């Protein structure tokens, strides 16, 4: 991934610590606590554990690949 894209993604991931449900996030259907944020052509999938105050990053991939199993 290009450096400029990497830097944008890293900055947005750091902001999740302050606001795990930012404007523009989407809850993944069929899951209780899985969300995604869009950063250009990339998607960051993550889970939120509110009880333990944990955000678990699951994937950060190009939009064409992120939902493939």
Q: Can I get a quick summary?
A:
The chain is an alpha+beta fold and 69 residues long. Helix content is 19%, strand content 36%.
Can you walk through the features of this model?
By secondary structure, the protein is an alpha+beta fold. The chain contains 1 helix and 4 strands; from the N terminus they run H-E-E-E-E. It has one helix at 3-15; strands spanning 26-27, 34-39, 42-49, 54-62. A 4-stranded antiparallel sheet has the order 1-2-3-4. The two termini are 20 Å apart.
| Gap between N and C termini | 20 Å
Give the tally of β-strands: 4
Largest sheet: 4 strands, antiparallel
Low-pLDDT windows of residues: none
Structural class: alpha+beta
Strand content: 35-45%
Global morphology = globular
- Helix and strand pattern: HEEEE
Number of alpha- plus pi-helical segments: 1
Radius of gyration: 12 Å
In order across it, which strands form the biggest sheet? 1-2-3-4
What is the helical fraction, as a range of percent?
A: 10-25%
Mean pLDDT: 90
Q: Which helices and strands appear, and what pairs or packs with what?
A:
Layout lengths: L2 H13 L10 E2 L6 E6 L2 E8 L4 E9 L7
Antiparallel strand pairs: 1-2, 2-3, 3-4
Features:
four-stranded antiparallel sheet; 1 helix; 69 residues; single chain; alpha+beta
């Amino acid at each position: 991934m290009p450096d400029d894209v990497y830097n944008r993604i890293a900055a947005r991931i750091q902001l999740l610590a302050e606001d795990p449900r930012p404007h523009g996030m989407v809850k993944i259907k069929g899951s209780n606590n899985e969300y995604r944020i869009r950063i250009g052509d990339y998607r960051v999938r993550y889970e939120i554990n509110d009880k333990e105050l944990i955000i678990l990053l699951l994937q950060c991939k190009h939009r064409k690949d992120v939902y493939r199993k």
